[in-house]
Specification:
Blueprint lengths: L8 H8 L3 H8 L12 H11 L8 E4 L5 H9 L4 E5 L2 H10 L4 E4 L11 E5 L12 H11 E12 L7 H19 L13 H11 L2 E12 L5 E9 L6
Parallel strand pairs: 1-2, 1-4, 2-3, 4-5
Antiparallel strand pairs: 5-7, 6-7
Helix pairs in contact: 1-2, 3-4, 6-8
Length: 240
Amino acid sequence: MFSPHGPSLHELCVQALSSVERGYDLLAPKFDHTPFRTPEGVLDAAVEVLADLGPFDRGLDVCCGTGAGVLVLDALCRGRITGVDFSAGMLDQARSDHPDTTWVRADARALPFAEAFDLAVTFGALGHFLPAERPAIFEGVYRALRPGGLFAFPVDAVPPVTSRWYWATLGFDLTMRVRNAVWRPPFVMYYRTNRLPAVHADLTAAGFTATAVALTAPGRYGDGSPRWQLVLARKQADAR
């Protein structure tokens, strides 16, 4: 599906009936040929915004997958870049594509870092966590950043009710909830659980000062509103 190099319908069905970790282990070799990978336009727009907020030394890609976020960090960071993910398959693919990056297998809800990075990013990963799990992720990123460090990630702007994307994401999330109610292990992937007000509240509770800027270049909805916003969460410069 998606392209001659992408996964087949059968492969996607096997993934969808697996756990998140096992599903991404299976999908890893073909993941970059699916629409699930963060679009290049979003990555480029993030670089454009973040370039004015540096300089940055060491960078961290949280839930790195095959390494799309590393492309952003490569463009912005002068020091060592680290990617962390819990899927061994995704890390194997990332290691093959980006051999100069440090790759760490770990759970994003228990990051094993302390004041080691100046910039942390994550792309397309928050939908794989339930809202109750976000605080642990944000607290771990906060610990991983040096004082004054920045955590950045895109979120979907709320689509207008007249948009096809509004109804597509609603239908997808409802389907996933039914799937997880009747099938084990669960496969957590939701589009509508990371709205900006809730994300902002969790970031504030973790200690960040958070804002968001619209990313207009990657596209707009039919009513002219941007499809993406980039969250910018800053750790206090004097945080100890």
